[in-house]
Amino acid sequence: xxxxxIMVFGAHPDDELTMAGTMAKLxxxxxxxxxxxxxxxxxxxxRPEMKDTIVALRRAEQQxxxxxxxxxxxxxxxxxxxxxxxxxxxxxxxxxxxxxxxPEAIFTxxxxxxxxxxxxxHALSLEAAWHAGEPV
Length: 136
Prior knowledge:
It is built from 4 helices and 4 strands; from the N terminus they run E-H-E-H-E-H-E-H. The protein has 136 residues and is of the alpha/beta class. Helix 2 (54-69) links the parallel strand 2 (32-39) and strand 3.
């Protein structure tokens, strides 16, 4: 694993943490780690009174996470939770991000899940990786 750059896709803020140990280890070795989060975390509140503040809280948590794990860059696509769509506009945004980062490895959700955002993140990141490698 002689990577210079990797990219980790997560559907929601905190989904990238399944890769926390790997990201921290690679960052410590000098690998540039970019995390791409597809949704805003707006439905991930544990208590009803947090509904109006959860997005800001998740954003602050992401900044702290980046410092702890050594994440060099974070891209937030900010689709509303449970509303991430696998459409052309979103696909092109992901293609642009991958072309900009130029990762040597991409990590993403598995192909089968019960959550629509996880499934769409998987599909979008795989297809975008393929398109990003095309010359056009």
